[in-house]
Amino acid sequence: MLYSSLSRGFKMGGVNSNPTVTAYKSLLSKTVKPESLVTTEIGFKSEFPNSALRLNGAIFKNTWRDYQFFLVYNPGNPANLFASLVNLPSAESTGAELELSWQASSTLRFNLSTAWLSTKVTNGQLDTSGISPLIVEGFQNQVVSGNQLTNAPEFSYSISAIKNIEFTHSELELSMYYNFLDKHPHQLAGTQSSIWLDNFSEDMVGLLTLNSIYFFGKEREFQLSLWLKNASDEKYCTERAIAPGTSTETARLCAQGDPREIGLTFKRTF
Fold it and tell me: Which residue blocks in the chain are alpha helix, DSSP H?
């Protein structure tokens, strides 16, 4: 089965801003333009004999106009630290996805998915109105055409296995999920050095989740779940930011990802 789609969405504009110091209080009334996104996609869905194996794939392209992002300008002097929501004139991403599902038996299923993604800023000219002439050049240099977009790994994949065990009056579901993300930046590189970009990028991350759900009751209305997230206790950052007043070559802030967590959940369905 083949399909294609063309869609358009938008993100509302708004009044900026979060200038970090009073020197930029004039920007409090600066507005951010609405962001628009056009997505084109073509793909296929297939089902092999006896429905034990399914293979789906797609290629797509996203084109943004007035892309909104949070820009931080830190020249090393806290008095000139500037952080604000701004618009990029245009950006784009191109990617491909492939998904494989195998129903090995009536009670065991395996899933595998992989994705490739290429992103870039296609027009990095910022609106610098209201910004002091003394920092316009440094402000603009935080983003240039060709920069990779943030939090967009080039390669990613996931593997899962789900096993069901039937009892006389209950059921047990065991599952395992592994998600892998390739190295990706948390900040737009601008004209910064390769050391700076490495400081603000996340290395490869692999997260393993284990879950067991016990269904019981006359109509399976009760569920008892025991789960383990980030089983290998992977250390990673969900975001990286600049430490005010420090060298951006050597110092940065990290919003740490969730550590290993184990939990027990009870649920009743009515």
Answer: 136-140, 194-199
Other Cβ atoms less than 10 A from the Cβ of 139: the count is: 21
197 confidence band (pLDDT: 50, 70, 90): confident
Strands 82-105 and 108-123: antiparallel
Residues 6-29: pLDDT tens digits?
A: 999 999 987 665 555 555 666 666
Q: What spatial distance separates the first Cα and last Cα of the chain, rounded to whole Å?
A: 38
Tell me which of 200 and 64 has the higher pLDDT. 64
CA 185/CA 149 separation, integer angstroms: 8
Compute the C-alpha angle 6/12/16, nearest 5°.
Answer: 145
Contact (Cβ atoms closer than 8 angstroms) between residue 174 and residue 162:
yes
CA 220 – CA 223 distance, rounded (Å) = 7
CATH of the domain at 120: 2.40.170.20
Q: Give one DSSP letter per residue of 48-70, joined into a string.
A: -GGG-EEEEEEEEEEEEEEEEEE
Residue 27 near residue 55, CB atoms below 8 Å: no
Domain boundaries, position 30: 2-268
pTM for the structure as a whole? 0.85
What is the tens place of the pLDDT at every residue in 234-243?
999 998 877 6
More confident residue, 4 or 78: 4
Beta bridge partners of residue 160, listed in sequence order: 111, 177
Q: Which residues, at least 6 apart from 75, have a Cβ–Cβ distance to it below 8 Å? A: 81, 135, 138
Instruction: Report the number of distinct structural domains present in the chain.
Output: 1
**267, 223 contact by CB (below 8 A):** yes
The sign of the torsion formed by the CA atoms of 136, 141, 146, 148 equals negative
